[in-house]
Specification:
- The longest helix has 18 residues, at 80-97.
- Helix content is 38%, strand content 21%.
- By secondary structure, it is α/β, with parallel strands linked by helices.
- Helix 3 (109-118) links the parallel strand 5 and strand 6.
- The protein contains 7 helices and 8 strands; from the N terminus they run βββαβαβαβαβαβαα.
- It has an 8-stranded parallel beta sheet, with helices on both faces.
- The radius of gyration is 16 Å and the shape is globular.
Length: 215
C-alpha cells in the first residue's frame, strides 16, 4: 500500500494507494472519506469567524484525521498577524481533539516553530512538502513528535542528503497539488536511500499507524 499523506485530489489510478486528501476550509467541500481539514494561510477569509466555525464543525468529524494544512507563509498576501492568529488557533484545536497537524511553511520555519512552542503543541506535526536542507531538517527532528513529508521536489535530486540522513520512522511521502504519481516519488526515495519498495512501503505504513493510532 502506497500512502500519500497529503494531496489536493483523490487518486483513483490504483487500488494500492491510500490518499489523504486535504480540505481547505472555505475553498473545498469536505470529503466523505478520510481526509485532513484546515484553514490555509492563502485562504484566510475576511469573515474569519464563519470560517473558523466551519473548521471546528469539520474537525470533529471522524473522517477528519488531521488538522491542516495550516501554517505561515511569508510570500502570500494574507496579513501576517492574521496568519499567526488563525494558525495558533488551529494548534489549540488539534491539541483539544488530539489530531495531528499538517504544516504549510514558506520561509517561516522559525516563526512556525515559535508558534508551536508558544501554544505547547502536544500532537504529531507533519511538515508537508519539505524542500530545505539537512541542517534545518536535523533541527526540526530533534522534536520526537515532528515528521517531514517529501513530494515531487525530491525528483530534482536536491534533497538526496536529507533522504539519506532522515530517520526512517520520521518521514512521509506525498503528491500535494502536483500531477506526479505517488509511485514515482516512492521509487525515487527508494533509489536515493538504497531500500526496496517493500521496505519503504512498510515503513511509511508503520509511521502512519504510529501517529494516527488514536484517531
Amino acid at each position: 500500500m502506497l500512502i500519500n499523506i497529503h494531496a489536493h485530489s483523490i487518486s483513483t489510478s490504483s487500488a494500492d494507494e491510500f490518499v489523504l486528501p486535504n480540505c481547505i476550509v472555505s475553498k473545498d467541500y469536505l470529503y466523505e472519506q478520510s481526509c485532513s481539514a484546515g484553514i490555509h494561510p492563502w485562504y484566510v477569509d475576511l469573515n474569519e469567524e464563519a470560517q473558523w466555525e466551519a473548521l471546528v464543525k469539520y474537525a470533529e468529524k471522524p473522517q477528519v484525521l488531521a488538522i491542516g494544512e495550516c501554517g505561515l507563509d511569508k510570500l502570500c498576501s494574507t496579513e501576517w498577524n492574521r496568519q499567526v492568529q488563525i494558525f495558533e488557533k488551529q494548534i489549540t484545536l488539534a491539541n483539544e481533539l488530539k489530531k495531528p497537524l499538517i504544516i504549510h511553511c514558506v520561509r517561516a520555519y522559525h516563526e512556525v516553530f515559535t508558534s508551536l512552542l508558544r501554544k505547547q503543541v502536544a500532537v504529531p506535526v507533519i511538515f508537508h512538502g519539505y524542500e530545505r536542507n539537512w541542517p534545518l531538517a536535523e533541527q526540526l527532528l530533534k522534536n520526537k513528535n515532528y515528521y517531514l513529508s517529501f513530494g515531487a521536489a525530491i525528483l530534482k535530486g536536491n534533497l538526496d542528503e536529507v533522504i539519506k540522513q532522515i530517520p526512517l520512522d520520521r518521514f512521509f511521502l506525498e503528491t500535494d497539488d502536483k500531477p506526479t504519481k505517488i509511485s514515482d516519488i516512492y521509487a525515487y526515495f527508494c533509489r536515493a536511500r538504497k531500500l526496496s519498495t517493500k521496505q519503504v512501503e512498510d515503513q511509511v505504513m508503520a509511521n502512519f499507524n504510529s501517529i494516527f493510532k488514536s484517531t
